[in-house]
Amino acid sequence: MMTRRQIVAGLAAAGGAAAQAPERPFDLLIRNGEVRDPGRGFRARADVGIREGRVAAIGPSLPAANARDVVDARGLYVTPGLVDLHTHVYFGGGSVPGIDADPVAARSGVTTWVDAGSFAHDNVAGFRRYIVDRSQVRVYGFVYLYPANRDPQADAVKYVRAAMRPTAEAVKANREMLLGVKVQIGANMNGRFSPEFLKIARELCDEHKLKLMVHVSDAPPEVPQIMEQMRAGDIITHSYTGHGTSLAEAAGKLKAGVAEARGRGVVFDLGHGLGSFNFAEARKCLDAGFPVDTISSDIYQRNIEGPVYDMPTTMSKLLYLGMSFDEVLARSTARPAKVIDRVEGMGTLQVGGPADVALLTIEDGQFQLVDSQRNAVTAKQRIACRLTICKGRRVQAPL
Ligand SMILES: [Zn+2]
Questions:
Q1: What pLDDT was estimated at residue 95?
Q2: Is residue 21's pLDDT more than 80?
Q3: Are 346 and 338 in contact (CB under 8 A)?
Q4: How remote is the CA of residue 115 from the centroid of ligand 1, in Å?
Q5: Ligand 1 centroid to 304 CA: how many Å?
Q6: End-to-end CA gap in the chain
């Protein structure tokens, strides 16, 4: 194998061909892959050249002699880096102990991680210093309005009311990193306080013009009540939970307010998690013409060994349910990137845009996929990741 210097020397000896190469070398060149970018409707066999953390060129036969690092992507899909809108990457206790993003990113293609409220306003500085600043991947967060480490003796509603102002201030002071406010509602989560918490969260987000992410699980509150509180740009997560806040009736019809909510721009997110993805429920909603807008894993320590494992496994479940690869990909790249709306071009592959890339493949075989209730299916295909590139660099699992 020739080194780059030998290749360039060879070309020069052959008559100055090196002089025709672009002036500045690519830092990384991905060759021979099948580029799939549903956000731009682009699909073609093409090379992708990366320079200084950005996509510098996309096209056939880009000059390999002029690249510092070359990846052969023959037989692989070259896609935008995956964007996981619901994860837990904050270290520590509580009901959702987070995982380290980088090692999972290295094997899963996820270049953008959104922590869905593992921390409250008083841990924002820690989130920045120990998670966001130290990760190779991009990390954003929603601030949780009602932390797990609260004083159990305190009046819950009073406590949440008191948290309103510092929560809003934290989000507004860290807008490049924080996306909004997360609240968990449902009989099994914050119990009888849930309707009140939802109202408080609504009030807070209206007053400060913040995005609201609402975790749904067991009713009450019932779905129509929840939908009434959701505005354009807000997010419902756990859309395919098989619990009381199912978006569709048992007979398959969507519940009151759901289609209207989507119509006015509410985002419906998957949020698999330990307890919130059910195959039959997903099938029912898909049959009702209600695919999720965004596919997300809700990964944390207690589900990384199953049933979640990672984002490609979660995506494979939608593929199994009949969603096309491009539809799955759009809901795992461009669509969630639009919800985040912090980096221009994120979630797509375009010249000048961020060089966040996943090298994916669809494996054929017999694969067992398991939902949150441990229902197992056998899929004939599985999405897998071969390489993750974020900000132009290979994401490495730290030693
Ligand atoms: Zn979660």
A1: 66
A2: no
A3: no
A4: 8
A5: 13
A6: 28
